[in-house]
Amino acid sequence: MALADGHLPVLPLGADKRPLGNCRNCADLACGGRPNMKTPGPCVCPWPCHGWAAATTNPSVLVSRQWGLAWRRARAIGYHPGGANVTVVDLDNPDAIAWARTTLPATTTVATTRGEHWIYSGTVRSVNAVRPGVDIKSLMSYARWIGPGTGTMTDVPAAVHDLVAEKPAARPAPRAVTVPAPDGGGQCPHRSPVYLERGIAMAEQRITAATSGVHATVYRTFLAVLSAHGRCGCLTDAHIGRLFLAAQAKGESPRHCTDAWSNATTTLGM
Question: Strands 86-91 and 10-13: what pairing?
Answer without folding.
Answer: unpaired
